[in-house]
Amino acid sequence: MAADHTHSAPSAPPRVRRILIVTVVPLFVATVLAAVLLWPRGGSPQTDGGADVPRYPGTVTRVVSEPCPPAPSAPEGTPRVGDGRCGTVDVLVDDGPTAGQQVRTPVPDGPGAPRVEVGDEVILVELADPTDPTTSNWNIAEHQRGTPMVWLAVIFAAAIVAFGRWRGLAALAGLAASFAILLTFVLPGISAGRSPLLVAVVGAALIMFVVLYLTHGVTAQTSVAVLGTLGSLVLTGVLATIATAATHLTGFGSEDATTLSMFQGDVDLHGLLLAGIIIGSLGVLDDVTVTQAATVTELANANPGLTRLQLYRAATRVGRAHIASTVNTIVLAYAGASLPLLLLLTADARPIGQILTSEFLAQEIVRSAVATLGLIAAVPLTTGLAAVVTAAGRSAATASTDAPASRPQPDRREALAALISPRTAGSDEPDQTRATPPSEATDRWPESNRSTDTAW
């Protein structure tokens, strides 16, 4: 039987469970109702994306390279397009009306054109000749990537399940649920003309409820993480709205957004920018809030003598270390996704101040800064909620356990005198420090204001 790598959190007392239920359940119901109201209806809107070109799988059987004809004279300084690859490629069509036939295509050439060899599996497109509609030309569009991606997905899932066991299996189910919500609600809702920010907030909240409870179970600790994540998401949305309005961002900060505006002009690109910030922040927020809630629970289990304030301070120190590394992760993730843009900007001859404040780069800076601010706010918010819930549950459990068997408590001053009085060899009086062993004295009288710096 698989064993979990974390200790199971003790069951919260009924009073704490009732408070969490009264808080979380209305939020979940409100999220579901908002999703029902915003759910896209009537199918996907038609976009002006041109005719659908038939695509057929095929296998390369022969490649013939030929010298390229001399290029026509061009003005000096004109950049060359492509690398001068010429010749023909024979491809066996694997599916479609011409399955089993050999077709001849030109060698793919131009920026981003695939390099093909014998045995490669490719995707063919059939284009009608504009001068003679009865004839058609075949071209290689790209490689087939289905089989390698399936193997990569299998290895990915196997590694998660092998390491996480049942928790890993639940994580895969949560990942599938996230993609299902994105593909069936968020993207169609934005395409249908709904407010991208509202759809993103509702979709992110729905993903959060499903993924956190499915992955970590329905516990008080998970409920604290849910509340912390939801509060941080709302704050991130508010900060993103203020930041994009203050910097006058329009949403046309990428070539993809410009292309989308051509195909579907009714999409609010400014709202789409806000929605991207919300969705992009959700995964990191989940990580931080779950970690902080688990940290508070583990600290309370390891040292039941910690007060609410001590729990908060100790867990916040863990959160600071987590934030320090996660902030770098966010910035590097955005930088890695925008490397072509950054390279293009480095070749720009404008002053660095104009480059940093341009629409293209300012959008990425605002995205990173807002996501980081929401992440920082998640640490004290979730840690405070977890400390309150954990301390309340421990107090209730202690009260119910110690109430029937009350015992007389020693006087504090006498205990202090016994602990700090020096031992005198040959004294006629009995050694008071040996009457009460230190461990027993500590059990009877815990130091409530003891610092946790040494222990933790």
Can you put this structure into words, describing what you see?
The chain has 456 residues and is α+β, with helices and mostly antiparallel strands. Helix content is 59%, strand content 9%. It contains 14 helices and five strands. The protein has helices spanning 14-38, 146-164, 166-191, 196-216, 220-246, 255-263, 269-302, 308-337, 339-346, 352-356, 359-402, 412-420, 432-435, 438-444; strands at residues 55-66, 86-93, 102-106, 121-128, 136-143. The chain has a five-stranded antiparallel sheet with strand order 3-2-1-4-5, with no helix packed on it. The radius of gyration is 32 Å and the shape is elongated. The two termini are 32 Å apart. Mean pLDDT is 78; it is low at 1-7, 401-407, 425-436 and 438-456. Residues 396-408 have a biased composition (Low complexity). Residues 65-84, 396-456 are annotated as: Disordered.
Beginning-to-end CA distance, first to last residue: 32 Å
Strand order of the largest sheet: 3-2-1-4-5
Average pLDDT reading: 78
Strand content: 5-15%
Number of strands: 5
**Shape, principal axes of CA atoms:** elongated
Helix proportion: 55-70%
Largest sheet: 5 strands, antiparallel
Poorly predicted parts: 1-7, 401-407, 425-436, 438-456
Radius of gyration: 32 Å
Task: Set down the secondary structure blueprint.
Blueprint: H1 14-38, E1 55-66, E2 86-93, E3 102-106, E4 121-128, E5 136-143, H2 146-164, H3 166-191, H4 196-216, H5 220-246, H6 255-263, H7 269-302, H8 308-337, H9 339-346, H10 352-356, H11 359-402, H12 412-420, H13 432-435, H14 438-444
Antiparallel strand pairs: 1-2, 1-4, 2-3, 4-5
